[in-house]
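tmp note - NlpC/P60 domain-containing protein
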Amino acid sequence: MVVIMSNYGTRTFVAITDASKKEAELVSYADLYDSFAFTSKLSGTQQISFNLTYKPGFERVFNLAQSKALVLYNGETYVIEQVEPVANEQGLIKNKVTASHHLIDALRNLRYDTDPESQNTTGGTTATNSDDKKEGVTVKRTGETQKFKLKDQLDVYFQNSKNVKYELHGNFPERACPVSDGTVLEWLNNNLSKYGGRYIMQGDTLHIYTDDALIKKLDMDFRYLYNVSQSQIQADVNDLVNVRKVYAGKMEETITTGGSDGEVGDGPTEPVNGDWGPVIRYAAQLMDVPIDDNGINLVKAQIKRESGGNEQIVQGIWDVNMANGNPAQGLLQFIPQTFNYYAVEGHKNIKSGFDQLLASFNIPNFLGQISGRSGWSPHGAPRSKTIIKPPAPKSTWGWPFRGMNGAPTSWENGQQFGHTGWVRPGSGGSDFHDGFDFGSAHYSGDILCVHGGTVTSVGYQAGFMVVTVKSSDGLTTVYQEFGNSVSVRVGQSVKTGDVIGRLTTTHLHLGITTKDFATAFAHSFDEGGGWLDPIKTIQSNGGGAKGQSVPIKKSRAQEYIEHAKTYLSPEPQVYKWGGEVKDGAHPTDCSGLWLSLALHFGIRLKDGARSTYQIIKQMRPIKRSEVQTGDAGFVPDLSHVVCALDNKTLIQESSYSEPCNTRSIDGYYKPLNWYRYDPLANVLGGEGSSDDSGGGTTTTTRTYYQIKFDWQDDESIKLYGRHVGAPLKLDDVYDEKEARDETAKQTQSKPVVSLDLDVISTKLLNKPVVSLGDKVHAVIPEHNINTDVTVVEVTGNDPYFNPDAKLKLTFNNANDALKDINVALRKDISAVRNNINDVNNWIGSNMTLSSTNRAWLEKQKTVSAESQTNNDRKEVNNG
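out:
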């Protein structure tokens, strides 16, 4: 153990030497008697100070005391950091010397700095094509961080040290504390507490302890008026927190749709509100032809010229085709022989516009053979006899237990989905059940996946094990209350019939929701969670509670993009200065377009802002690289605003001569100033993609927390009242029990208490030497203290230099060492929160008030009493 002062009554000295240590001079005991002071603190200062008087016999030591000279005291070496003159009435020359333990200087010279050149990338560059992304849902843990051993991290700093070393005492856990640029002292001050460690400097060694290794019981009592002359308790309640929200287990979910290498989903085969654009896009996807907005508009122009969009029309103008009995027909006016040549299997109805589009995209370079302004003559060998990229088969569903040939035929009331008539415990009076309970009386063994997807969470929620699976159709399946036998992990892809876990309790609760699990879980006892009837959904192979198919869930950002494009199709909306701000495509101006698109999501600016100059005042500037869906771009003079569809494309109403249009954000006359309106950005939740090409992908990414709960310390609330703190984020904790334990560790739910004792040095003669980390017994009747406490700091003069000097020992409530002191204080802290009379009682019994303060308090009591009397009179009169 590290001694913090000399043995009481044992001869000691202070000497000063230069860095070479070839000569040393003793400091006068007269100076040390009057001025010597030392401070020794756990994981902190180890410092001494004293005055030097320039007088006969001590001139040499006075002159040696310069900055960076060395001071020898009690077997330790200190480095002088400061020398400053001291005024005195005798006219003597005096300097005050302050020195810190030499290890502090040494530790400041142990650095780790990243080599900037080592971060440069060497070799070639690999391009990443967004079209290579696969469709589906990818879920991964983003909060997980590598954990390191304390020894390994310290070795990085100490590896080249020759003169100083460290020693570890105790067993330290691994923690996510990477090495960082800077000194080892900076790293220790930022990270050592996370390992549960404290350090003390001794000689050339930095000793690092766990509390178990550091704290030792010392057979010594400190009693008031025996060896303690004064005591003081300081309680800090400013940072006390006993209620807070906790978010744990940071996750990232990426949904990718429309990839060229992925499967094609269902799409429209008939025009949507008269618009053939969606059908053109779907046909191009099926025939594996990349197409963008320009390509779609080209095909639409050709359709308009050939048939006006009428898929049943037959040629009415006499020509050679009619003369031969082969009139052109349908959407793109194929003659029957040509259509049959290019038509694909299963789609040979010439009067079907969808079938004609499939045949058209089966023609080599179809888009290059049409102009949209004149007739066309198909040529070239067919690309395929069948659809090149057939639609993906619909997701299959299954039952959660082997041997089930259909829906359950019997159950206890309350196990079924919906309003059951049985009020559920803890529901606040609700009889709504958000799933179906498969009881162990009828089912047992492995729990099977009922709908394929990606495992998005595995962990405890509200005391139950929960596994969630997110499918590409946007549905989330929830398996819970089945026990703790789990066979899957987060991020794993599972298909129908795979084993999720094993039933080891009374039942499996199966839920299916259209919303994200966090939202749905918050509505476990009402319909607001998007819950579907699991039995009907499985029976209908994915139908909803009413047997209707569940639409694929789109991101709000993608919804913004698709809604914005209604201003372009079927006809672009014309520019109208001062046009209305309303939902739905309509003629308007540049600011009206941004406001109308925001209004579609229920977002309105304050104070009726309408012009570009008014809009920008309610936004905040962002960098060009940060631009995402819904942001606003302004030209330099603020006379024009555009709307960002994504980071590459904008949409705008620009002028009378140019109707609503899209263009590259970085193209001609690009906006130079980008701004964001946070309420809209929060609703959209990120960025979508305006790329409509058949070969492109749409990727939506969101981050969320797997575990959410409200934490509170009931005992602390009872003692000190409610103190609500900021939310705590535990990104790398994916288990609820661990998250609750970590929250308790990181939350100061009791006052930070320190106890200072002024110790009479002469009473310590022939007693054991007190060291940092020693546990001693304190008996202070005036504070109702009779408990063991641990020494964390000692200050004062050395008893050998001044036997009458007082030492100050400081203790705190780390590891509940001062639990009894907290109990003694809690009544005082609680009393502060009560009314003026309680405050008066508290003050009256604990301290002496000045006459001025006493008069003020009496006045407040009088005012309070008069107010209460008036209230009583009002109640009587009202009665």
